[in-house]
Design a protein that fits this description.
Blueprint lengths: L1 H5 L7 H9 L20 E4 L2 E3 L2 H10 L7 E5 L5 H9 L2 E6 L2 H13 L5 E5 L12 E6 L8 H5 L1 E11 L5 E9 L2 E10 L13
Parallel strand pairs: 3-4, 3-6, 4-5, 6-7
Antiparallel strand pairs: 1-2, 7-8, 8-9
Helix pairs in contact: 2-4
The structure holds S-adenosyl-L-homocysteine.
Length: 204
């Protein structure tokens, strides 16, 4: 997976490639999909949600240029796969998921695999996690028509955010930097994520 889907397609950050080699993607998906765990596409993880395609995950991590001392906010924990990668690349990971069941399952997988520098919260991630702000980097794993202002407000000066922006069927990945308090937006590649659902959380 790392050689043919990531390195040969231009992912260069050695820390990202190393983390992608280390995190066992199959542990984050249902056993019935294990035969497909390292293939080049998203997979279902329950509740109508998906674990993202490895390439787009690696690209997002590379664009964020993460440092080992960074405090990072993730929106859309899902299976916890990206949370595990962030845990290897950064100092502290704060992850928000609106589905209580997905959050609980991700938390137990991450504990079982000994990823310890991670906190998960069930909430609407479009509001960020003010208690632990500001963050050096924010990774949004769900698509939004516009970058949520509460997330930008929770970035450190000089901080970076990657977020899929656009309608539900196809979006563009954006890299947003906070420079002198203002957003500097770079449009990156096309992508397709499940929607960021704002408002009340699903606690069933
Ligand atoms: N990075 C995840 C991908 C999960 S898919 C993985 O590797 O598995 C996107 C996730 O975002 C879903 O789990 C969905 O429930 C969650 N989500 C959607 N809207 C959200 C919101 N407003 N706040 C928090 N999480 C949200």
């Amino acid at each position: 997976m790392v050689r043919t889907q990531l390195a040969e397609r231009g992912i260069r950050d050695l820390r990202v490639l190393d983390a992608m080699r280390k995190v066992p993607r199959h542990e984050f998906i249902p056993e019935s999909f294990w035969h497909d765990a390292y293939e080049d596409h998203p997979l279902p993880i329950g509740e109508g949600q998906t674990i993202s395609q490895p390439y787009i995950v690696a690209a997002m991590l590379e664009y964020l240029a993460l440092q080992s001392t960074d405090h990072v906010l993730e929106i859309g924990t899902g299976s916890g796969y990206v949370t595990a990668l962030l845990s290897l690349l950064c100092a502290e990971v704060y992850s928000v998921e609106r589905h209580a069941q997905l959050a609980a399952s991700a938390e137990s997988t991450l504990q079982r695999l000994h990823y310890r520098n991670v906190k998960i919260r069930v909430a609407d991630g479009s509001q960020g996690w003010p208690k632990y702000a500001p963050f050096h980097a924010i990774l949004v794993s769900a698509a939004t028509p516009e970058m949520p202002p509460a997330l930008f407000a929770q970035l450190h000066e000089g901080g970076r955010m990657v977020v899929p922006v656009g309608p539900s069927f196809s979006q563009q990945l954006q890299l947003i930097r906070k420079l002198a308090g203002k957003p500097e937006v770079n449009i990156l590649e096309g992508c397709r994520f499940v929607p960021l659902v704002e408002g009340a959380v699903d606690s069933e």
